[in-house]
């Protein structure tokens, strides 16, 4: 098959399903077809082409792409065309993939259902009455619907893993620092990571291989060698020690999710791995800690959207202060405003010690919980989310219930360790469940090894 045909297939599929799924915010058809033609014109030996040569990819809309509209699904950036490519995009270009378009998300990556997009909600391809998860809902839905072969998402508190679980695909949040954040529009800089969403674990490893590594443009990217992830896909988990936190199978986790994890553990046991119950005692504080820290960081990061430097500017303003106010009032959606207010409050003088500083201290306790378990075990396993996807509209009026949905993914970001979600059976409503496999810092290889064996 030629790259031209492959790219044509992608747009054909998009034409068939996109009015139902609504995964894309922007398509880049003309450029993608031209790129395909250029790649087809390349001559060389087969092994000179990388593994990703000519493959169609979708990119979450908070990752900047030169000259290609990047909105973060926010009205405030409705007309924003970046002047540079994110490092991950440059790396994918070097690997000669073809960018098909930009993917829908919750506005500025705040949300768990894609209902916070400033433009339109993405639907779950398995059943369009249900949410695809979020915030990388477009990234997961586009892969699940066969519109692209793979996509990039971002994960601050579960935004790659939870939509991957809801859409029955594979999504990895790498170790904090594994992948450059240069060109990722920041939500909470100390938690954000870009990662791959794919159909299979092997595809996921190929994609991580292409985007991982230290970057001089991102001081928080880590100078840690990138191993050969493909060599981890041996299918062998003999002797592997698995920890299962009792907090991940307890209160707030549905029976279906619990049973599917127990069934997966049985499979892994049959392959020679062993598992034991452990405790991550500070998990109960993770949600509060996350919403304090992530909102505090967001309130600072989003201060730059003032109508002067980026995107849309209100034309009703009568003074400079009024320009800021009008632009931000008109441009940001309700959830983004809620987080900015919460974060600004938590950082204000007089409250800093009680909230932000306290949350930082608890974050350390949560991180230590993980480190302690990893002294004795190779991976931690649990569900990705408490249940299958929920219906569109079901939780949107109740932010706290929506936040509670992230209890199983958030601790992983707070600890900075890698986590993957792989499909793990179906619920009674016919929608997919996800299994979460969590590894030690920079040990994506073991995470992939277990995920691949289970696949
Ligand atoms: N759902 C979580 C939130 O709303 C996580 C989002 C994310 O990982 N970007 O903050």
From TrEMBL:
Coiled-coil region list: none
Record keyword Heme present: no
UniProt xrefs under PROSITE patterns: AMIDASES (PS00571)
Originating gene: gatA
Biological source species: Ectobacillus funiculus
Record note on quaternary structure: Heterotrimer of A, B and C subunits.
Active site as annotated: 60 (charge relay system), 135 (charge relay system), 159 (acyl-ester intermediate)
Family: Belongs to the amidase family. GatA subfamily.
Protein name (Swiss-Prot/TrEMBL): Glutamyl-tRNA(Gln) amidotransferase subunit A
Residues of the signal peptide: none
Stored NCBIfam families: gatA
Sorted UniProt keywords: ATP-binding, Ligase, Nucleotide-binding, Protein biosynthesis
């Amino acid at each position: 098959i030629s790259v031209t045909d492959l790219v044509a297939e992608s747009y054909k599929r998009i034409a068939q399903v996109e009015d139902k799924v609504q995964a894309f915010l922007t398509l880049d058809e003309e450029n993608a077809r031209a790129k395909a033609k250029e790649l087809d014109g390349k001559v060389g030996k087969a092994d000179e082409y990388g593994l990703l040569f000519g493959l169609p990819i979708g990119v979450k809309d908070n990752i900047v792409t030169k000259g290609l509209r990047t909105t973060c699904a926010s009205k405030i950036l409705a007309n924003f065309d970046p002047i540079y490519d994110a490092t991950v995009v440059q790396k994918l270009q070097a690997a000669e993939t073809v960018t098909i378009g930009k993917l829908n998300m919750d506005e500025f990556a705040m949300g768990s259902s894609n209902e916070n997009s400033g433009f339109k909600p993405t639907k779950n391809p398995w059943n369009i009455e249900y949410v695809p998860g979020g915030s990388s809902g477009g990234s997961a839905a586009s892969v699940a619907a066969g519109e692209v072969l793979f996509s990039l998402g971002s994960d601050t508190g579960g935004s790659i893993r939870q939509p991957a679980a809801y859409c029955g695909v594979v999504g990895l949040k790498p170790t904090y620092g594994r992948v450059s954040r240069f060109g990722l529009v920041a939500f909470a800089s100390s938690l954000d990571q870009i990662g791959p969403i794919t159909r299979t674990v092997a595809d996921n490893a190929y994609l991580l291989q292409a985007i991982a590594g230290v970057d001089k443009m991102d001081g928080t990217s880590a100078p840690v060698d990138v191993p050969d992830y493909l060599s981890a896909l041996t299918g062998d988990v003999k002797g592997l020690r698995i920890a299962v936190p009792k907090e991940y199978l307890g209160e707030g986790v549905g029976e279906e999710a619990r049973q599917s994890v127990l069934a997966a553990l049985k499979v892994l046991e049959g392959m020679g791995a062993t598992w034991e119950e452990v405790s991550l005692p500070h998990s109960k504080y993770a949600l509060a800690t996350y919403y304090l820290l992530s909102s505090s960081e967001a309130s600072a990061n989003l201060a730059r959207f003032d109508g002067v430097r980026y995107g849309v500017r209100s034309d009703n303003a009568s003074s400079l202060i009024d320009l800021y106010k009008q632009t931000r009032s008109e441009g940001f959606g309700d959830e983004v405003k809620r987080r900015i207010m919460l974060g600004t409050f938590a950082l204000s003088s007089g409250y800093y010690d009680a909230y932000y500083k306290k949350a930082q201290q608890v974050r350390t306790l949560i991180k230590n919980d993980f480190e302690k378990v990893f002294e004795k075990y190779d991976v931690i396993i649990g569900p990705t989310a408490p249940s299958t996807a929920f219906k569109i509209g079901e939780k949107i009026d109740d932010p706290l219930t929506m936040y509670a949905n992230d209890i199983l993914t958030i601790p992983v970001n707070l600890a900075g360790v890698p986590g993957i979600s792989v499909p793990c059976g179906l619920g009674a409503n016919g929608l997919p469940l996800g299994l979460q496999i969590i590894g030690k810092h920079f040990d994506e290889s073991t995470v992939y090894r277990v995920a691949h064996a289970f696949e």
